[in-house]
Each structure stands twice: as structure tokens, then as C-alpha cells.
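lol ok so funny story. i was supposed to be doing the assay writeup but got distracted and ended up predicting the structure for this chain instead. priorities right. anyway since i did it might as well share w the group, maybe its usefull for someone
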Amino acid sequence: MSSKNAFYAQSGGVTSVINASACGVIETARKHRRHIGKVYAGRNGIIGALTEDLIDTSREPARAIAALRHTPGGAFGSCRFKLKGLDESRREYERLIEVFRAHNIGYFFYNGGGDSADTCHKVSQLSRKLDFPIQAIHVPKTVDNDLPVTDTCPGFGSVAKYVAVSTQEAALDVESMASTSTKVFILEVMGRHAGWIAAAGGLAGNSSREAPHIILFPEVEFAETAFLKRVDQAVKRYGYCVVVASEGVRHPNGKFLAEAGSRDAFGHAQLGGVAPYLAALVKERLGHKYHWALADYLQRAARHIASKTDVEQAYAVGKAAVELAIRGENALMVTIKRISDSPYRWKTGEVPLARVANREKMMPARFISKDGFGITAACRRYLGPLIRGEDYPPFGKDGLPRYVRLKNTPVKRKLKTRFVL
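and the output, tada:
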């Protein structure tokens, strides 16, 4: 039988392990050449498909593809470009099918978060309407850990490890200088609607004395008076206070503490910084000397301290996506199923994309302490296994990690028409 080619693309904010998923997809596809001919990657995500800017991954040697497993960033480029509904964006969806038809592509692997799951679902629907079969499988990725159904999301475990370690290390620094210097340290982490990353900071301490003394979640309305009281109490009792704050913390009226007034490419509110907002509040109301930091891109790019669990899961979902496709499955997202906490055991599964697209998984109430400023034992049991183990990249004699850069050889265009975004 003649084999179809596959299209793979990376979407949204990349992670330190998204390339491990790419590695899983490409290496597994190469083992099934009877079903899958070549794997074409989209340059800069789905935009590469729309503009027929494809990358021929078959031109890369096996060792380069294997090195993706320990390389951060997005090897083929990513994008923040959301395809809307089929009626609103029909031109774009029909262009995708036109490109897929021209390049004999029968498999669509989209590696991203909730918006990518939605796009993947719509592609599978349109392919049926246009009578051009495409097996669309969503490969999950998001540092926010907010995709539903799956126990966790590849990318989250490594961010969680980075935030927990950074909180622990910064706290030791602040504590050692607190008598004559900084009294309050605030670390701002990602998490627009869900507080999973902020919660991970809680793993740094095991008692009320140990940092972080306060965690601020998007799921809990910001109570200014209670927050300031807790900061002052920590400073008086322990000599210092460490706060881990999610970027998505909101006022009781629903407005972000740090809303800047602009919107990103997905229509989400641009946030200007909750840490400086809180720091100014502490200075004005309490007079304590402070420092604040934004984990920002560092938290999601830190492959040097990635969680071994996360790396293994990222590779596994890429591998499972290909295996589902060659079995004839369609319109599914690969999931991670937790079998047990101790010992930690897991396996991959799948869920229909209709149950995933445009849905978010928030922190459950049972994971947040009653006072709203910390995590519970149940949350620790959930988070703990996700940050375990180290999977260091190879280091060179210069002391820096050895990351791979692919050649990213372009595929010759076949369509006469050019697509303008």
C-alpha cells in the first residue's frame, strides 16, 4: 500500500520538553515507513502549513533527531496564531487541506495546548466535509497544566521543578540577608487562569516557617488586607517573607492585578506584572524593603534542570500519537493516566478532542489550603512525582549544554498560489 506523509507542527509558547515530543513523533514515524512516508514539519507552526513552508525532517540524521530530546525551545519554530471557527476561517482551513493534498499528507500531529486541540478538532471535521481524509491527533503541551482529562501536561513538570528549586534557593538567599537587607521577596510565575505553576512553588517548603510563606492563585480572589497582614506576620515571626504569585491573580471584580490593557494574538489580556504591583503595595503599606523577580521565559526554557518524569512523558505522548494514527484513530488527544502515586506509575491514553477543545482544568479546591495562601497534602501528593528525577543534557568542555540546531531543509513548493496571512 502507498504510505501517506505526516505533518507535525508546534504551537504556542514552547517548553523545555516540546522537542522531546517532536523526537517521539519523528523517531516513531521512521519505524513505521510502511504507513508513514515522510514527516514534514511546519516552519513556525501552523503558519508553515498555510504558507506551504514545510520542513523535510527526513533530511536530518538520526543523531540530530535524537538530540531533540534534550534540546529546549521549538526546533521548527512555533507561533501564536489561532484559527477561528470553520465559518469564520474557512479560507484558512481549506488552504490547509489544499497543502495537505498537494504533499500527500494524511496525518496531522499538532503539538500544543487548548487552542491547538481546537484547531486539530476542526481540521478533522473539515477533512471529512471536503472528502480528504486526515487523521488528526493532538499532542498535548502546556506549562500551565490546564488541559482537561489528562492527569498532567508535558512541559508542566519541568516548569514546576524550576519554580520549586528557584523558590527554595532564593529563600535561602533572602533569609541569610534579612536582618539588614531585603525582607520580602516576590516571585511571579506563569499561569493566567490556573494556579498549577504557583502551587509548585509550595514544594520548596515543608512547614509554615519555610518559604514560600504565601502563594497567590488565580482561583482565589486577591484579598489585599489579608495578604498584607500575612506578609507582616511572616516578617515578624521569621524575619522575612517569600511570596510566589501567579500572573493571573485577580481582584474581586475579576480584573487582573496586572492587566496592561492590551491583547495578545489569541485575544488574551496582556499582563504587565503582578510582582511589581505587589511589591509597591508592600512598600507603601508596610514599608518593608523588597525585591521581586519574573520567572518569565526562564521557567519554561530551563532544560538544564528538567524533570525526568516530564521528559519521559513528553516523548511518550509523541510516540503514542503516531501509534494511534497508524491504527486508524482520528480526532483524539493523547493523555497521561496516573495509575498510582506511590510508587508513581503512569501510562498514555487518549480522549476525543471534543472533550478537550476550549476547556481548562483549574486547581481543585482540595489542593488549596483553607486560608487560600498555600497548598494541601493532597496537592503535594499530586505534584511531587511530576518533578522527580533529573535528565541533564550533555555538557561541553566550555561548561555549556550541547543543544542541537537542525538544518530544517525546506520542501519544494507545489502550489502556484501563495497564501497571505
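The two ends are 36 Å apart (CA to CA). The CA atoms of residues 125 and 331 lie 8 Å apart.
back to the writeup now i swear
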